[in-house]
Design a protein that fits this description.
The complex is a heterodimer. Chain A is mainly alpha-helical. Chain A has helices spanning 2-9, 17-51, 55-59, 73-79, 82-115, 121-132, 136-154, 164-168, 170-186, 190-198, 203-214, 216-232, 235-240, 249-257, 265-294; strands at residues 258-259, 262-263. Chain A is flat. Chain B is α+β, with helices and mostly antiparallel strands. In chain B, strands 6-7-8-3-9-10 form a six-stranded mixed β-sheet, with helices on both faces. In chain B, strands 13-12-11-14-21 form a five-stranded antiparallel β-sheet. In chain B, helix 2 runs parallel beside helix 4, helix 3 (107-121) crosses helix 4 and helix 4 runs parallel beside helix 5. The chains are: A mainly alpha, B alpha+beta.
């Protein structure tokens, strides 16, 4: 902005140091942006190329970066296979239920921690975040043990059932979603809920009619996060589910398409690409909200 | 419509007393302004009346009922905040009707009330806009509208004009006064701006360090301040305080400001101050408008003296002159045609009929 103003003020003047700095900054930015774009886009491009090849072409000693005989057979085979659609269905239903459960816990929790000052609320808020820092690779053994005990005591089958993941994923999603929503709720001016209280709103009405609409970008960011985490989760479903019909997409692809040391590369790549599609589509539609949500608190909402 | 009473109201935060025992009776229809420097407890007092802060001790009564433990929504009050606190996702009409909708008023009545309030505040055209499409002054009107539609017992204003620019502030001040003349709702208004306090209030409550310094009409506070704090806080430029001493000279009481300058007190003042000790530790309080240029026909009680001006500030309708009396900076207001110049000598006249005498130690006006 300022450089433009300078340029307009003196078109015949030599370029100021400001604009020269800016030009160099831009060159470096583009250099690194291109570098990162290549770095991050190579794997998906390679996946796409491989998914369009037949098994024969994949194993042939031709240029791996080019498709000589493009085919959609991998896609057709996967999309007509009941097994793959089952994985897809399991992943979808689990992710959607987890998102709903997460939001129903996180939103009231974040509201309480951000606004209702009670004894220990600050410590509790920090505690919520700390639980997020415990890696799931540490948690899955005690969780497995716990569920086993619950299963023995109640007689309800939990292990090797897809719905057990609905109980387990929130241990990952709730702390983080609560944490970012505490930040978002905290950025809402205090006077707004005071005005609502004076207008006669209860805490619940304040949450539902003021906080949720105002903090919508933050809620959407949290929703996307919860969905992505559940969708991409690998360790927990690998541990807790074993029967083919109970598997989710990431585990299903690796267990059914890798037979011993035979890798069905074409279908693995196709499955991975199809599996990446739903989060990608959600991101594309909600990107603006997502960014607005992540940068919440940087400026007053 | 209701009266509001505060009885020995105290607010403690941990070990800090923010409000230290406030007694205040606000009559029905009255416009009361709480004024004072930041941290004097005025906002806390207002928030306690609103029910947004618990009171540590004492009683607050609205319409004769003690409301200490009544939640804000049941106190039948409306509040206007400094940052407007409009709900950003609602239109102006929805903002104004939110409280009524929560109380399940019939739709027709909500519409009638919103229309009426919008007409009163001249925001009928804005009714379908969102707050971010409004200017600061318009937002403030909407915030007032939200208070008016509820038809509450008491209006509470928490520095409502502080976020507006100077010109708009003057305009909105008049607007608020007009609205109060129409709806006549008991109003408690908090500000740090003494001009706002003076122009709006039926009675002004001057607060300092969690206590009430003085309660009175704007004119009472201006002409008969009770303490040095009130005398210095109300009025702009502020009142001058000049160390002085009382002396007996030739049968009259005179006040000595410097070795060179001493004035005989007018008879009414002399009688009032005669019993005071003839020692140091007194302050002469004199407002700048009672320090003017000298001229040929002086009223009784007006005394002249010569000084050298340090700085002059032409304001257009008057010129402020600054000079020192034995090191005490003093401000006077002279006619712009009186020829006041930086660094030039000038003969000034002090109107002792409007003087105040203060105890320097206690700050009490004698």
């Amino acid at each position: 902005m300022s450089t433009m103003a300078i340029d307009k003020a003196g078109p015949t003047r030599k370029l100021g140091s400001m604009s020269r700095d800016r030009a160099w900054a831009l060159r470096w930015s583009y250099f690194f942006l291109v570098l990162f774009a290549i770095f991050f886009l190579t794997p998906p491009v390679y996946m796409l190329i491989t998914s369009l090849k037949s098994s024969a072409e994949i194993s042939a000693a031709t240029n791996p970066w080019w498709v000589f005989h493009p085919t959609l057979s991998n896609y057709i085979e996967l999309l007509t296979s009941n097994q793959f659609l089952r994985f897809f269905w399991n992943s979808s239903i689990i992710s959607i239920v987890v998102v709903i459960v997460t939001m129903m816990i996180s939103i009231p929790a974040a509201f309480a921690l951000a606004r209702m000052k009670f004894w220990g609320s600050a410590t509790l808020a920090t505690g919520v975040f700390l639980t997020y820092l415990i890696p799931d690779s540490l948690l899955f053994i005690p969780l497995f043990k716990m569920l086993g005990v619950v299963q023995d005591l109640t007689g309800i089958t939990l292990l090797n059932r897809w719905y057990v993941l609905v109980f387990i994923y929130p241990t990952l999603t709730v702390p983080f979603c609560t944490w970012i929503m505490i930040g978002y709720f905290a950025s809402i001016p205090k006077e707004l809920d005071e005005a609502a209280i004076i207008d006669g709103a209860s805490w619940l009405q304040t949450l539902l009619r003021i906080f949720i609409p105002v903090a919508l970008p933050g809620l959407i960011a949290a929703t996307i996060f919860a969905f992505t985490v559940s969708w991409a989760q690998f360790l927990y479903p690998l541990v807790f589910t074993t029967s083919i019909d109970q598997l989710v997409l990431p585990v299903g692809i690796t267990t059914t398409l890798i037979k011993g040391d035979v890798f069905n590369w074409g279908q693995i790549m196709t499955g991975a690409l199809l599996g990446a599609a739903p989060p990608l589509i959600i991101y594309a539609f909600l990107m603006d909200y997502y960014i607005a949500g992540l940068t919440a608190g940087a400026t007053k909402g | 419509m209701a009266d509001v009473s505060l009885r020995k109201v105290i607010k403690r935060y941990d070990d800090v007393e923010a409000v230290r025992g406030i007694d205040l009776d606000i009559a029905d229809h009255e416009f009361i302004v709480l004024v004072g420097p930041s941290g004097c407890g005025k906002s806390t007092t207002l928030r306690m009346i609103a029910g947004l802060e618990d009171i540590s001790d004492g009683d607050i009564m609205i319409g004769g009922d003690v409301v200490n433990d009544v939640p804000p929504k049941d106190r039948d009050i409306a509040m206007v905040f400094q940052n407007y606190a409009l709900y950003p996702h609602m239109t102006v009409a929805e903002n104004m009707s939110f409280g009524l909708r929560l109380k399940h008023y019939p739709k027709a009545e909500i519409k009638a009330r919103v229309t009426e309030a919008a007409r009163l505040l001249d925001i009928t055209d804005l009714i379908d806009r969102k707050p971010k499409q409004l200017s600061g002054g318009q937002r403030q009107r909407v915030a007032m509208g939200r208070a008016i539609v509820r038809n509450p017992k008491v209006f509470l204003f928490d520095e409502p004009l502080s976020n507006l620019d100077a010109k708009l502030r003057v305009q909105m001040r008049i607007e608020i006064k007009k609205v109060h003349q129409k709806v006549r709702t008991t109003t408690v208004y908090v500000t740090h701006d003494q001009v706002e306090a003076m122009t709006l209030a039926d009675r002004v409550v001057v607060m300092n360090k969690g206590r009430i310094e003085q309660i009175g009409t704007p004119n009472e506070l201006y002409h008969k301040p009770a303490t040095r704090f009130v005398a210095g806080f109300i009025g702009s430029p502020a009142m001058n305080f000049i160390p002085c001493r009382l002396e007996d000279a030739a049968g009259t009481l005179q006040i000595r400001l410097t070795d060179r300058i001493a004035f005989a007190l007018p008879p009414a003042r002399a009688a009032r101050y005669n019993a005071l000790p003839r020692t140091d530790g007194l302050l002469l309080g004199i407002r700048p408008e009672h320090l003017t240029e000298s001229h040929a026909h002086l009223d009784p009680g007006v005394e002249t003296f010569d000084t050298v001006l340090d700085v002059t500030e032409p304001m257009g309708m008057e010129t402020l002159v600054y000079f020192g009396l034995d090191g005490t900076p003093v401000c006077g207001r002279v006619n712009p045609n009186a020829g006041a110049k930086d660094g030039a000598p000038m003969r000034l006249a002090m109107d002792l009929n409007n003087m105040h005498l203060l105890n320097e130690q206690t700050g009490v006006v004698l």
